Amino acid sequence: MSETIIKFGILGCAEIARKVGRSIILAPNATIVAVGSRSAEKAARFAADNGFPAGTRAYGSYDAVLDDPEVDAVYVPLPTSLHAKWAIQAARKKKHLLLEKPVAVDVAEFDGIVEACVASGVQFMDGTMWMHHPRTATMKEFVSDERAFGKLRAMHTCFAFAADPDFLENDIRVKPDLDSHGALGDAGWYCIRSILWGNDYELPKSVTALRGPVLNKAGVILSCGASLYWEDGKVATFHCSFLSHLTMDITAIGTKGTLQVHDFVVPFQESEASFSVASESGFNELVTGWVTKPAEHIVSTSLPQEALMVKEFSSLVGAIKAGGSQPEMKWPIISRKTQLVLDAVKLSIKRGFEPVEVVG
């Protein structure tokens, strides 16, 4: 029996909606049937410019998309400050929810979104795309292997890119009324998620923002970092920035091995992605080289990670529609933990870089 095709509506014409719209088209169990903007003309132009399926309905409001009876699920790429309003409305109208990250202004606001999703029985997932690449699962196999990797002791992550002057002045990610988290929400979200991923989503005991964050004149973070501490002695650090050269690194250090990846958010190419591992390495006799050297692993994929995200989300929605499944709660739980750490970093900065306890 063929899999149910999930019909998507898109709220807004954000730049990232071009990428995810393409991915909905590529996913074998999804399609686009509606897009909404502040004008029907803009929505129609966006659909045409991005090759959306013929017959995609263009609406002049987000409400019209939510009221479309054919729409099963919505992708919401709106500014973070608008997430709670439209995500809750979508859930109340029984639309399954693929929500762009960062998910909310704070965890209390996110809890309202999840409450609405649970009450309506709809699936929630955030748009952290790299989680769905097959490389991610393969890397997890290595860091979970106590014989090769041992026990995790430290993680270091970075996501930075050098934004141009127009971005730094006009992009929604530098506007306090639209995306008040700035680089912490846009890039730091990925770093925090990768650290939690490496730690099997165990929350740290405390978070301390690193000194020297860069804020714009409106008080939005352009660059920052933090250290995370667990009671068993594990540590992690991350750096995120709109002001530094493009970097997307993870280093996970175990008692017996090390994992490194240099393009974890967006792979260097769509069709394959690599990472390197080293296990029980040491120096040669004269300390002029390594024994054993790190080994590179390449993981191929027939679909880009964004389409795999849509495919997984749509499979969950399809199972619910078929009447045999409940919404998968691991996704909102992971999102909430990411938001908790993000909130703690902001609070530590506000408190003059004091440690902030993370309470789940």
Write up what this structure looks like.
Strand 1, helix 1 (15-26) and strand 2 form a beta-alpha-beta unit. The protein starts with 5 loop residues before the first strand and ends with a strand. Strands 7, 8, 9, 10, 11, 12, 13, 14, 17 and 18 form a 10-stranded mixed beta sheet that branches. Strands 3-2-1-4-5-6 form a 6-stranded parallel beta sheet, with helices on both faces. A two-stranded antiparallel ribbon has the order 15-16. The chain is α/β, with parallel strands linked by helices and 360 residues long. The chain has 2 domains: 6-130, Rossmann fold, CATH 3.40.50.720; 135-305 and 339-357, Dihydrodipicolinate Reductase, domain 2 (2-Layer Sandwich), CATH 3.30.360.10. The protein has helices at 15-26, 40-49, 62-66, 83-92, 107-120, 134-143, 165-170, 183-198, 305-321, 330-350, and strands at residues 6-11, 30-36, 57-59, 73-76, 96-99, 124-126, 152-162, 206-209, 214-215, 221-229, 235-241, 243-254, 257-261, 272-279, 282-283, 290-291, 295-300, 356-357.
